[in-house]
Amino acid sequence: MSNPDAVKSVLRDLRIEVPSWAFGNSGTRFKVFAQAGVPRDPFEKIADAAAVHRFTGSAPSVALHIPWDRVDDYAALAKFASDHGIALGTINSNTFQDNDYMLGSVTHPDPRVRRKATDHLLDCIDIMDATGSRDLKLWFADGTNYPGQDDITARQERLGEALAEVYARLGADQRMVLEYKFFEPAFYHTDVPDWGTSFLHCVALGDRALVCVDTGHHAPGTNIEFIVAQLLRTKKLGAFDFNSRFYADDDLMVGSADPFQLFRVMHEVNRGQGFAAGTPITFMLDQCHNIEAKIPGQIRSIMNVQEAVAKALLVDADALGTAQRDGDVLGANAVVMDAYNTDVRPLLAELRADQGLDPDPMAAYKRSGYAETIAKDRVGGAQAGWGA
Ligand code: RM4
Ligand code: MN
């Protein structure tokens, strides 16, 4: 697809979900830097997510993290979101911040702890019923630090049992997306370290269990686009958690560390029909803004995703196919590089103008005074962060 109208029409329908935790304070284990105007409760996080949508037109839903976003009445929270022009999206579970989980959650050797962790996942589905969310996102911090610490195989069996119980509880329109991460917080072995492990469990569960690719959860040099292509051809790609990394799970703004990698990923998504109407893929950001302002950090990230998608859509599929069939190595590579090296910013500015948006979302946000208003209004109370 190299026609600009077709590119615009895909971009108009592209929906990128933002994470509620991106609006709270975050940092490293060395220091969390508090910022003025940070939300003090889930409602204020939703208001900030709605601001990102107002300026980008591309972020109509916000993912929640339980228990960080626990409220008494989830239907009321969903109503608050819809009054602000957005919806509640993926429910992210948390089985990593309780003392009981020191040796694992659903893979823990003690059945009492496994029960507690599984019950939390079931509670998350109750919340999805109230919010109207489609996806339950599972990320397990489970693993061991020392050889021999626990039985790796037994832990896989325990994981499979817990997942089967949770899967059986899903409603007909609900799905489970299973994230993998190669290390951290466990250092010797991780129970869901790679796409293959996630894939095996999802295949065993059924059609509504799908793999989530968090771009930051790979070893340096991993060919992430290959994983994406493989999951697309086997119909097991359910979601992305987008972010950038230089070293570990840095959770930096997507497209900031390696925009070319993001483009290569988007090229495979496009090749695998991942942007087609009714796509099964949830495109989500999973980021933290430790030192930069959070709302514009999210706006910039959405723009980075849009740029990578636009460039991927500009790849001339016919020319590429011809060059590939002819064994024209340099020609095929040139087709891909021509698309990547196109400046798509004017096209995106035009699209925003067509949509009645400001062509420059960053400048429009700055001018809007929203940052000053929340800094003035949100005084007192406890600012949100990981764990609140
Ligand atoms: C994990 C993982 C999850 C996210 C948490 C906050 O590393 O990426 O998706 O919910 O961090
Ligand atoms: Mn993630």
From the structure above, extract its key features.
about 400 residues; alpha/beta; 8-stranded parallel beta barrel; two-stranded antiparallel ribbon; 14 helices; about 10% strand; binds beta-L-rhamnopyranose; binds manganese (II) ion
Concise overview:
By secondary structure, this protein is an alpha/beta fold. The protein is built from 14 helices and ten strands.
Measured by DSSP, the beta-strand proportion falls in 5-15%
Radius of gyration: 21 Å
Q: Order of SSEs, N→C?
A: HEHEHEHEEHEEHEHEHEHHHHHH
Helix content: 40-55%
| Strand line-up of the largest beta sheet | 1-2-3-4-6-8-9-10
Based on helices, strands and strand pairing, what is the structural class? Answer: alpha/beta
Shape: globular
User: What average pLDDT do the residues reach?
Assistant: 97
User: Which parts are unreliable, with pLDDT below 50 for 5 consecutive residues or more?
Assistant: none
Largest sheet: 8 strands, parallel, barrel
Figure out the total of helices: 14
Bound molecules: beta-L-rhamnopyranose, manganese (II) ion
Distance between the termini: 45 Å
Strands, total number: 10
